[in-house]
Design brief:
The protein is mostly helical. It has one domain: Ammonium transporter AmtB like domains (Ammonium transporter fold, Orthogonal Bundle). Helix 4 crosses helix 6. The protein is globular.
């Protein structure tokens, strides 16, 4: 082939190549396309919250005894149902009617109205569905922590308070440009503090007020071992992992451009790396301490890693994500024995995986995000944890001395609870 012919062929290839299209940029979508894409993002986030809720329920089923499995399922389903009702009655209004820099929104019943859809950017129902799913997910976190000894109705009351009052108020402080977001530059992209730390604090309150399971500490403690199906915890982890990927991506609030799609992909990659780092760290630590990898601890380590990057899954480099997720794995592996010293019976490791890792995730944002302020991060997460914990303590204490919160104690060797 002569030089002239080679030049002609090369010119023709360049002319038909799609590369110039990428170089010139992709045309922006229409207003209708943006509305549809952003609404679909929120709907996907709401479905992902339900998938993550299923994952936590399966995780809890794997670490309780067979006679407690039906109550785990019942409380998880009840938490989702009561969250939907309460987020309609008071939750959404409290969360998203607050003024900039304010502390509290209005107690308004949410109305599914799309008066000016294109101006809003997404469907009102899609946004409600997403945030309601997160409220329900927080209530289920408490369910696992206090498993095997709490009555159904007191739990549902506490879940209603979390979904209809606690979670919406902390949302208004942060995601709705309330006091801490506006005044303290508080950053929490995926809910490390707003969802996980607040739910973990509520779980700690339940554990303290309800008390440990019969047979967990003292004489006969060696009989209290999980016998349902530990491999089920792995299935639960898979569902929770999938849910966290989409929830963190949905936290962008928009998926209507090339830039937002790139950001969503970055979030998914960083969330995956953090979960892997937490899991691998837990494998190493349990291998060193117990001479064998402990499945329940490894699953908790992965959850801790996923939560540890939730506050800021976009800005960190991958090497930073590895460190952040690895620390989460350390926290979840080391904290449970320490809590046992104080007789804090946390069946699902909610305090370590959600409260402690949520706090860690929120604070470390000041290292990875140049827009964050360490003092603001500390102030925001402290306020959220204190508010959620003491409100939950008041609710559980009131229930304890009125209706009672504990199931009648039963022998762990017995085939069924009293």
């Amino acid at each position: 082939m002569t030089k002239a012919m080679r030049l002609l062929v090369l010119s023709a290839a360049v002319a038909i190549s799609p590369a110039p299209l990428a170089a010139q940029g992709i045309e922006p979508p229409s207003d209708t396309t943006r509305y549809l894409m952003d609404s679909l993002l929120f709907v996907s986030g709401g479905v992902a919250a339900l998938i993550a809720l299923l994952g936590l329920a399966l995780r809890d089923l794997g670490v309780v005894r067979p006679q407690s499995a039906p109550s785990i399922c019942l409380r998880s389903a009840g938490a989702y149902a009561i969250a939907a009702i309460m987020f309609w009655l008071t939750g959404y209004g409290l969360a998203f009617s607050v003024e900039d820099g304010g502390l509290l929104g209005d107690f308004n019943v949410w109305s599914n109205e799309d008066i000016d859809p294109l101006a809003a950017g997404s469907s009102a129902g899609a946004r409600w569905f997403f945030y309601m799913g997160l409220a329900a997910l927080g209530a289920v976190i408490t369910s696992g922590a206090a498993a095997e000894r709490v009555k159904l109705w007191p739990f549902l009351v506490a879940g209603a308070v979390f979904a209809g009052l606690i979670f919406p108020i902390v949302v208004s402080w942060s995601w709705s440009e309330g006091y801490f977001a506006s005044i303290w530059r508080f950053k929490d992209h995926g809910g490390a503090a707003v969802l996980h730390a607040s739910a973990g604090a509520a779980a700690l309150a339940a554990i303290l007020v309800v008390g440990p399971r019969a047979g967990k500490y003292g004489p006969g403690a060696n009989r209290l071992t999980p016998t349902t199906s530990l491999p089920m915890t792995f299935i639960g982890l898979v569902f929770f992992w999938i849910g966290m990927l989409v929830i963190n991506a949905a936290g962008l609030g928009a998926l209507n451009s090339v830039e937002t799609m790139i950001s969503a992909a970055t979030i998914i990659v960083n969330t995956t790396i953090a979960g892997a780092a937490g899991l691998f760290t837990a494998v190493i630590l349990t291998q060193i301490v117990y001479r064998r990898a402990n499945l329940a601890a490894v699953v908790s380590g992965a959850i801790g890693g996923l939560v540890s990057v939730a506050a800021d899954p976009l800005y960190p480099a991958i090497w930073q994500v590895l460190l952040i997720g690895g620390v989460g794995g350390v926290v979840v592996t080391v904290a449970p024995p320490f809590l046992d010293r104080f007789r804090l019976d946390d069946v699902s490791n909610a305090v370590a995986a959600h409260l402690l890792c949520g706090v860690w995730s929120t604070i470390i944002v000041a290292w990875t995000n140049p827009e964050a302020w360490l003092v603001g991060q500390l102030a925001g997460v402290t306020a959220i944890v204190v508010f959620s914990f003491f409100t939950s303590v008041l609710v559980w204490t009131a229930l304890k001395y009125t209706f009672g919160v504990r199931l009648v104690a039963f022998d762990p060797a017995s085939p069924k609870p009293a």
